[in-house]
Amino acid sequence: MKKILLVFLVIVGLTGCKATLYHGIYSNMNGTSVNLSGQNFKYLGSFSGTASEPKMRVNIIGEEGIVSEAKTDLINKAKKAGIELKDSRVLCNVIIEATENKNTLSVTVSADVIEYTK
Predict the structure, then answer these.
(1) Pick from 51, 47, 48, 91: nearest CA to 67
(2) What is the pLDDT of residues 11-59, one digit of tens each?
(3) In angstroms, how far is CA 71 from the centroid of its own chain?
(4) What is the pTM of this model?
(5) Per-domain residue ranges of the chain
(6) How far, in Å, CA of 41 to CA of 47, rounded?
(7) Cβ atoms of 112 and 46 closer than 8 Å
(8) Alpha helices in the chain, H assignment, sequence order
């Protein structure tokens, strides 16, 4: 009887645990393609931005999405480093990572910034 009770308690204890979930996207988001094989661009740096939100939100009407907030954070970090997205400067190699646990959803957007020279 003690062994059955011990096995039952172990099973109940382990089913109450939930691992952190990770979701990553690495793909061409906008469906465009540019040839970067020549000397037609200059690499300006790599940046990342992060945003976190509690999973249980009552009202999200009129607010930015969490991916948009992370991208805004990325752009602000690039501006602080003296790199502003204007003219022929663009984000490339954009990666979106989402981490989820019991109470929080966190999103990180990472990208390289390049400037076309020709």
Answers:
(1) 51
(2) 666 665 555 565 655 555 556 666 666 788 899 999 999 999 887 765 5
(3) 8
(4) 0.68
(5) 20-116
(6) 18
(7) yes
(8) 2-15, 66-80
pLDDT in tens, 73-111: 999 999 999 999 988 899 988 888 888 888 888 999 999
* Residue type present at position 113: V
Helix (H) or strand (E) holding 66: helix 66-80
What residue ranges in 37-117 does DSSP mark as E strands? 41-54, 89-100, 104-116
**Residues near 10 by beta carbon (within 8 Å), at least 6 away in sequence:** none
- State residue 95 phi and psi, 5-degree precision: -125, 130
3-class secondary-structure state, position 71? helix
Give residue 27's identity as a one-letter amino acid code. Answer: S
Q: How far is residue 5's CA from residue 14's CA, in Å, rounded to a whole number?
A: 14
20-116 fold:
Translation Initiation Factor IF3 (3.30.110)
Q: How many residues does the chain have?
A: 118
